[in-house]
Amino acid sequence: MYVLIAGGGKIGANLARSLLRDGHGHEVTLIEQRRDRYERLEHEFEHQVQVGDATEIHVLDRAGIARPPDVVVAVTGDDEDNLIICQLAREKYGVGKVVARVNDPRNQAHFDLLGISATVSATASIMALIEHEVPEHDLIHLLELRKENLEIVEVQIDKSAPAAGKRVEKLKLPEGSRLISITRNGRSEIAIGSTELQPGDQVLAILQPGKEDELRRVLLKS
Amino acid sequence: MKALVIGCGRVGSNVALQLAEEGWDVTAVDEKEEALTRLGENWRGGFVLGHGMDVDVLREAGIEDADAVVVATNGDNTNLVVAQVAMKRFDNQCVVVRILDPARADFYRTLGLRTICPTKTAISELMEAARACEIMPRAPVTIT
Question: Alpha-carbon distance B103 to A28, whole Å?
Fold first, then answer.
């Protein structure tokens, strides 16, 4: 697989390192704009790193974007740059897969608007983990599957929950939703029709965005 | 008519001033407060302090009912994103955007953005001036 990485900071360099590690057999080109950083990277990556602004078309051309790469990864510290790199890769060179780093979660909407899916935001991920560990809400978003238009959420069944003591097959789950698994006393199992929900259970569900309230009503609110 | 000028540097501030002079209701946006001084003491238009990537800033500046949006910050990529947000998210029909890099200006024009490239203008004017030297007899130069 040929991977073009824009941005040779910690993320970009570690990504290149991981892809090049023995056995993977991947081909990588890393683009870094800052001369000092580029020189340090060159010691390690030699001809696999190039210097330049990856939002400039001639820099992308020189890095081999016209081949095109299987994946273009934009992980600079600048959201505008990451957006434009991905847009150029896809719209101008027909790159099939692009992955972008979102530095400021407030910019996520811009990535969505311009159709750059497969975005990674460290801040948003850590926020989700905090929420998972110290839930402030009864329904926690664990994962958004943007392309599939689905999301995975977690709910905790308490004593007063209408679903407590009921079998999964007896629940009137909203259309476009399904329970995945039940975690009880640290052990998890796949939720099937005969699984009975008990107070204290942590339940994972997959659903279409917008169905949260209906699901909440069936599982949590009496 | 309402105009929004995003990026109030040398270019943006003059566009804002001239539009205002022609009777437009202009609001300028810049992330630096000093930018306001470029508009002069008699500026009667609006000014919103903030970044063009911030949709709350754009809303506060009135993007939802602007008749024209001029995007002229000093970052090409910022301009490209802000212009697309203005067009696609806020459905603004008249968005003009300054792009210094001719290659990106050309490509985004094919995607439907009204890009203005001062670099290309400079190149063609310099070329024209250089060509004029060929046909013009060299004027005597006296250095005193």
Answer: 25
